[in-house]
Amino acid sequence: MAAKDRSIKYVHLPRRDGWMITLTDLSYMLLTFFVLIMSMSSMNDKAFKDAFGFLNQGFGVLEFPAPQKL
Question: Which residue, 62, 32, 29, is CA-closest to 45?
């Protein structure tokens, strides 16, 4: 194995693939957001009230208005 020549200065450049990590994180966040939107759009009101109705009693945060008659 050859020894390194001490007269040559080696320059370590920064990695250039950092943008791929950011792009991957962004795509996963967008995928998660759209899956959440799709799952909430297909949930009916009764299932939502049954699942999260305890929050209204405990914290008084959610208010479910009565359905309006047209």
Answer: 62
